């Protein structure tokens, strides 16, 4: 599947997934005008939005999408927390119950976060199995034969411990972070327990501005797995400063007279 990361992190999240026939968004956590900037006319292709949880950095534009009549797939708990549970366009999903949108089969799974009923997703088309997990302090769900992984790598314990020692963060903030977001160390443990033989690429999501080191995280995960790692940089929405993927990928500014601040990522043939 084609993956476009437009925004990732506590300032907003927006990802587009395209199969042969179907375009989905995962999350809609930006103001609608920014989402329109990002997607351009491809917003008309969006068949549905998959929403992991109610926090504004993931759900900000949900009401606008519903006004456009676009289907939202999310848990009942998330829908209630967003106040959209009565909308005819909201479809309740349940952990480990499969549903289909276009030619993509989707299985939600439970995540662990300070939210009502958060989920992650496994998406499957005729080519790929993509796993998406963010805003979760642990990952109990394993999938065989994933080919694309989009996963949170919010902080490292090493950085947090150092900051705690120096008094740069207090214990309650420390505890909140490790009980709500996924760390580099936990990601490495999860990767070590999973079959990665089909995995082609890894996207690290939702890096903390203060408590992460993008270059180091990328290097460590690449060294461990031997698989290309891309950082979904939250600056993408503000500056177009998307971190250039490696040689098999290319960043192309989408032609636009209004703005050139975003990039569409596509796979080179
Ligand atoms: Zn978040
Ligand atoms: Zn959250």
UniProtKB/TrEMBL annotation:
Superkingdom of origin: Bacteria
InterPro entries in UniProt: Metallo-B-lactamas, RibonucZ/Hydroxyglut_hydro, WalJ/YycJ-like
Pfam assignment, any one: Lactamase_B_2
SMART domains: Lactamase_B (SM00849)
Domain (Metallo-beta-lactamase) ranges: 11-181
Descriptive protein name: Metallo-beta-lactamase domain-containing protein
Species of the source: Megamonas funiformis YIT 11815
């Amino acid at each position: 599947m084609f993956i476009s990361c437009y925004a990732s992190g506590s300032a907003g999240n927006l990802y587009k997934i395209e199969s042969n026939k179907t375009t989905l968004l995962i999350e809609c956590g930006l103001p609608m005008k920014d989402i329109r900037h990002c997607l351009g006319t491809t917003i008309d292709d969006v068949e549905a939005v998959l929403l992991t949880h109610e926090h504004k950095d993931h759900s900000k534009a949900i009401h606008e999408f519903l006004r456009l009549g676009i289907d939202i797939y999310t848990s009942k708990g998330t829908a209630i927390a967003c106040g959209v549970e009565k909308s005819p366009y909201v479809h309740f999903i349940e952990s480990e119950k499969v549903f289909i949108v276009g030619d993509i089969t989707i299985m939600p799974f439970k995540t662990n976060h300070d939210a009502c009923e958060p989920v992650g997703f496994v998406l499957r088309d005729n080519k790929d199995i993509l796993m998406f997990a963010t805003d979760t302090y642990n990952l109990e769900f394993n999938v065989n034969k994933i080919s694309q992984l989009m996963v949170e790598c919010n902080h490292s314990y090493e950085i947090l411990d150092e900051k705690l020692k120096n008094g740069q963060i207090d214990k309650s903030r420390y505890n909140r972070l490790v009980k709500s977001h996924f760390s580099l160390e936990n990601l490495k443990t999860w990767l070590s327990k999973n079959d990665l033989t089909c995995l082609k690429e890894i996207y690290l999501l939702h890096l903390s501005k203060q408590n992460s080191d993008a270059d180091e995280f990328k290097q460590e995960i690449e060294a461990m797995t031997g698989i290309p790692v891309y950082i979904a940089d939250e600056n993408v929405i503000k500056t177009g400063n998307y971190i250039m993927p490696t040689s098999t990928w290319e960043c192309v500014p989408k032609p636009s007279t209004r703005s050139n601040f975003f990039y569409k990522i596509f796979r080179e043939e």
